Amino acid sequence: MGIPEVPPDPPSRFIRAGARFMATGPAQSFLRRYGWRIDRALIKLTNGHLSLSMTLPEVLLTHTGAKSGQQRSTPLTYFTDGGRVICVASNYGGVRHPAWYHNVKANPRVTLTSRGYQGTFVGEEMVGDERDRLFELATQFMPNYAGYQKTTQGRRIPVVAFTEVH
Q: Which residues contact 146 (CB under 8 A, 6 or more apart)?
């Protein structure tokens, strides 16, 4: 796999502090409204070498709109597991799934870009025990996911695995 491997190890103190800040209302509001737009431009401009996150690995997901058919780009935090890129459709703990999730479900063939590498992948929603195992790894890697699950008003946060197409 050309996307840099990222084990879902527990975060450092620095990352935990950043995660606590990003879990605050003002930070989440900023991220939902503006952060992803700035991040998307920054990742594209630097070919995946820089993002707003600075501390967490990010991948730029380029996907096809389920209804529009137009290309869309979304920056996402990720980790890797068994040669797959794992992304969590948390939508910052919102009550609805993020648009990228619906788009990938409708059109699973996507492009992922990170740290100078770009490749074609197929996304698949994980279910059952595999979803639960990966979500547990995700909460270990990024503690905010556990908090996000509590604010979804019952929405089960999906986990999507992307496998590279050779």
A: 139
User: CATH number for the domain including 89?
Assistant: 2.30.110.10
pLDDT band at 43 (very low <50, low <70, confident <90, very high): confident
CA distances from 164 to 51, 77, 95, 110, 122 (A): 22, 17, 30, 9, 6
Answer for the pair 62, 103: CB distance below 8 angstroms, yes or no.
no
Tell me if 3 is assigned to some domain. Answer: no
Q: Give me the number of domains the chain comprises.
A: 1
Whether residue 119 contacts residue 164, with contact meaning beta carbons closer than 8 Å, is answered with yes
Retrieve residue 132's tokens: 């639960």
Q: What is the mean pLDDT of residues 85-98?
A: 94
Q: Is the torsion defined by CA of 95, 125, 48, 147 positive or negative?
A: positive
CA 81-16-85 angle, 5° bins: 20
Tokens for 116, please give them: 């100078």
Split at pLDDT 50, 70, 90, the class of 67 is very high
> Would you say how long the chain is, in residues?
166
Of the candidates 65, 57, 66, the one whose C-alpha atom is nearest the C-alpha of residue 138 is 57
Residue 1 within any structural domain of the chain: no
